[in-house]
Amino acid sequence: MKTPxxxxxxRPKASVALVVARWNREITDVLAxxxxxxxxxxxxxxxxxxxxxxxxLPAAVALLADTGRFDAxxxxxxxxxxxxxxxxxxxxxxxxxxxxxxLTYPCAIPFGVxxxxxxEQARQRAGGTEGNKGEETMEAAFDLLALRQMVAKAAPAARxxxxxxxxxxxxxxxxSPGKA
Length: 180
What we know:
Rossmann fold, 53% helix
């Protein structure tokens, strides 16, 4: 497993939903296996769900995120360029949809959709010379979970500090000149 320098090694216990597109299944199955293995090695529980293709991933991610049962919802898909603009339309729609969900929901939602020009490029990213991008997608979920954990720990202190500043300001207002 490739791990870029500086990558968080925090692996909090979590419940993960893995959503796998069946289109280009020979690629997505390998990516999903890498993601699932990575999560289980970190002690996480994984539930796997299937959808027809990458276009259905944003809807499935939203449904699963809405349940509140999962700390991370990890989409896995593979789009391969063809001879028509279909690839461009799907790649943009899926990317935009997943990005919007990742900004909307508190659970970790990384981007696990390959967008390749050729089948060979996809194969190389699904366990070939480029590694397994499914593993890397799960690592991205770990990083988001670790960040969420860090922010949650810092939040109580920040709230106390904000409350203290707020109390000072209101006390100054009560004693302003001209008031009896």
